Amino acid sequence: MLEDKNTHRTDLSQLGEFGLIDLLTRDFPLHNPSSLKGIGDDAAVIDFGEEKAVVSTDLLIEGVHFNLAYMPLKHLGYKAIMVNLSDICAMNALPTQVTVSLAVSNRFPVEALQELYEGIRLACDIYKVDLVGGDTTSSTRGLILSVTALGKAPLEKIVYRNGAKENDLIVVTGDLGAAYMGLQILERENEVFKVNPNLQPDLEPYQYLIERQLKPEARKDIISLLEALEVRPTSMMDISDGLSSELLHICKQSHVGCRLMEDKIPLDPTLINVCEEFALSSTMVALSGGEDYELLMTIAPADYDKIKGNPNLTVIGYITDESLGCNLITRANEAIPLKARGWNAF
Ligand code: ADP
Ligand code: MG
């Protein structure tokens, strides 16, 4: 059911490199005045005027970062853009342009790459970012996809990981752990499918979790919200590897400690149910499961009134002096040292 349903199969060699680039990039209207020159020349030209440029890049390898058995190509395209836009948002900047480079083997027909670009197009359209370039080449095996995102922000708005101060509040957007449990479900159903391809899994009860895995959203809306609330976080990053590992990054770079309250971590009710089904602790999943692409930030105590009661922003703890270390305060009111057990590329 998650397979791409293309009936036609056009061989890549039929189009050639330039025909392929033309076909894939034909339907990408430019949304931003800062995109002076997009696809079609030796380089794109971007004009950010007085603002600073923010750049981030990611490389995705088939079999390492994604599995096409349960990741439809359209979702892969969407997600590849999203994870990069998320990095730009994590700087408190607004994403404006992307470039997409791919290496493909002739195992992929033209139609498969069109599916991939349909996901890329959807992401660019919804987030109003411009595809302004890329590169296309062949690989001996599998698919390799690299996305670079550009964004802009006035210098005084840019937020780094190293600005957290003692007594700042730790704030997170959305809810955590769902993308990881979505992956557990997809992997479980894929194993069942390998044994009995006639069994159609009932994924309905897991829809939210699967969507969080296959179709994550960058929190561009939070950048606008922070601006409207007149809050500039003291530090910020996106949660790609899991809450504990990201919070440890902020604490290390800011030379501070933290107290993270277990009972404050925002969890979706579906996540709690499915963690029970898998006999996993939902706290552990929220701490160590990655790919939620929510934003983790610290804010000055003076800004608390501005964010209080906002359903998008949850206070989950506070920053302490470095000497106190980084601790999780459990529901039983015990302090246990936070460990980075997030996804590790190696
Ligand atoms: P060059 O030979 O200078 O690398 P190419 O012929 O590879 O240029 O690319 C032509 C144009 O198409 C450039 O603007 C390039 O950025 C763009 N482009 C190439 N491949 C892709 C792709 N996969 N997605 C988006 N744009 C691409
Ligand atoms: Mg090229």
UniProtKB/TrEMBL annotation:
Residues 40-152 form the PurM-like N-terminal domain. It catalyses: thiamine phosphate + ATP = thiamine diphosphate + ADP. Residues 166-322 form the PurM-like C-terminal domain. PANTHER family: THIAMINE-MONOPHOSPHATE KINASE (PTHR30270:SF0). Catalyzes the ATP-dependent phosphorylation of thiamine-monophosphate (TMP) to form thiamine-pyrophosphate (TPP), the active form of vitamin B1. NCBIfam families: thiL. This is Thiamine-monophosphate kinase. It comes from Capnocytophaga gingivalis. The lineage of its organism: Bacteria, Pseudomonadati, Bacteroidota, Flavobacteriia, Flavobacteriales.
